[in-house]
Predict the 3D structure of the following.
Amino acid sequence: MEAILFLLLVLVAGSVVTVPLRRREHATPLDARTAALEAARDAKLREIRDAELDHRTGKLSDVDYAALDGTLRSEAADLLRELEEARA
Amino acid sequence: MAALGRACLFLGLVLAAGGIGASIYGARAKRQEWVEVGRRCVYALAAVMTIAFLVLEAAFWRTDLSFSVVAGHSSTTTPLFYRIAAPWSSQEGSLLLWVWLLSIWSSLALRLTRKRLAEVAPYATAVLLVYGAFFLTLSAFLVNPFGVTNPAPAEGAGLQPLLRHPSMMIHPPMLYSGYTLFSVPFAFAVGALIAGRLDAEWIRSTRRFALLAWLCLGVGILLGARWSWTELGWGGFWAWDPVENAALMPWLTGTAFLHSVMIQEKRGMLKVWNVSLVMATGVLAVLGTFLVRSGVLQSIHAFGGSTLGKPFLAFIAALLIGSVGLVAYRMPSLRSKARLDSLLSREAIFLLNNLVLCGLAFVIFWGTFFPLISEAVTGHKASVGPPWFDRYTVPLAIMLVLLSGIGPVIAWRRATLANARRNLAGPAIAALLATALLAATVDAVRTPASAGLFAAAAFAIAAVVQELWRGAHARSAAAHQPLPGAFVGVVRRNRRRYGGYVVHAGVAVLLTGVAASSTFQHVRDVRLSPGQTARVGSYDVKYVRPTTRMQAEKISLGATLDVSKGGHHVATLQPTRGYYPTLDPSLGPVGRYFDGDATSEVGLKAGPTRDIWTAVEPDLSRFQGAIARADREFADATPATNGLLLSAIAARYEAAPPPATFRMIVSPLVEWVWLGGGIAALGGLLALWPTRARRRATRRAAAARVRLRPRRVLEGA
């Protein structure tokens, strides 16, 4: 009984997990470099927003904020450029 | 049904082995279809484990005593609520719960990352399946939950009385969810190291799992503390019990990881530290499970001596050696070019906070494993108690709370001294005022440790309130919104930031409760007869009359207590002692109740300023003669006669009540522990909740990326 049940379950599970081997086409995961650049871009954009909020809540002076924001935006622009190149 | 359960276990092993092979082959040969087979093995494992767990649940639900595990941990008189929770009261069932939860969380993680981390995910899949295979091997070959007894016994042993508490339903699953969820970032970290993809992508994809693990483990620990306070009868919510400690260690290192990971995301720094932290957390989570399973250390949670110690030690050693080896192998790529801009920056505060959290974890590790260490070195098993832990953990806790107030008011990258001074002034004044107020009104600063903690907590809470106020004010000015709307808006747009701040405030409230209740509680153990009164703290507690209660699974003997203060009635409490029968046939029909397990149901009056806690232990020595006579004369009593005999004992207890020993505790601010935990959990949920922008981006990204390409697409990737 146990052996039959086991074989039945193996057949069902086996047919389900091996579907990709019978398919002719497969979904493509995102290219690793693009994904890494997207992660870096998102983090940079968040950093820009964080710096803005830090400035508005008095944690950064106007001078410090201007310098930091400039640096961050320049880094973000570089990342966006790299991302476009990676996607091209 | 048992056959179906066993078949599921063996099929689970086949799926795990097949999935490991398919994932590794797919990654090495760059064959996407095999990677997908590996991922599908995890989904199938989740389905199969769900069936297995449902089979076990059904057996407990129906009290199918042919299942050995049901006969050993449930009975026909166990209430349905506890029968549903009983599977994880046993070694066998709790291991099955572990694998089931692991398979569910692993499936979710792999589903959410299926379009990402092409090089990392296959190895992460293999690691998650190795975890699954290990626990399935234990379940299938060493502690099978689907073992049967033939013929089935007429009655089961019943659920351990101490486990009959509503927390039983949720405390273990929350802890196990925390443990198993931490295996997700662990597996992806291993995958990232093997694949050499050491950017922040694996962190971005698994950060929410780490946060959810942190939340579940924290809530689980807190529920356990609450359970201790209301059920266990010793009058504490934390005992530095090895298993409680074991759960706290990965929570602490996980907390450190959640902070330091932000530095890697923003600055690309601390890669070595972050992978080390996440790996330590993963190993500590398995270590916590090992402590419960192996019985190597004495604990209320331990499942007693078992055969699982050696396999667990081998698995932990493999995890540890593998982790250290991988980090060492990838060390050159993990080095960061970026440097800390300033010691006065949020990054620097996070680093300090990480050191304190890891220091706390190390102290707890050392104290918990000291009995094993001392036995290995000297041959004698020595242990350390609460005073030892307090000596090291209290100063670290004060530093931690202080840093949780400083962090939110310091800017990223570089803060100027003038800005820092201006932002820290408000919280510092609040801390001074709170300390002065407490000193003047309630003498709450009589010990330096408690004074330090209260001041640090006031500082941290004031810093969080200041940040929330300033954030709302800034948004109100920028968006021309009324303040309440601006408050909601700024929090909604910055959930991660403000969720974290709320957690800080919650932890400060929680630790205030811990400090106050530990330092200023009054405890008395007294022996009273009805009519007598004892004084505890500023309260008078009078033993008014005895109480009895007969239930199917136990007999309860207790007391009605009247609590008053300055002549004014405060509360009526009814602590009881519940006596559960054993199945030992050598004991008589009445004696088996009083020689079996007994638990305390405490009488508790909880309040925002103090809890009044009482437990009772009736002196039954004067009933021993009557119990022995009843056992002799009614050795073959029917259940109905047995009920009458117990009723007679209960009636005699009420008519001529013996003296009883009471433990009475008046403990200030215990409720703050639960309140602070609740605030921290809400903050965690807030940080976890996806933002609308993120949901939109996820949908857009999914729509953009779902396209079909020919087979072997990984070639040349």
Q: What stands out?
A: Helices of chain A lie at 2-17, 19-22, 32-56, 62-87. The two ends of chain A are 59 Å apart (CA to CA). The CA atoms of residues 41 and 78 of chain A lie 9 Å apart.
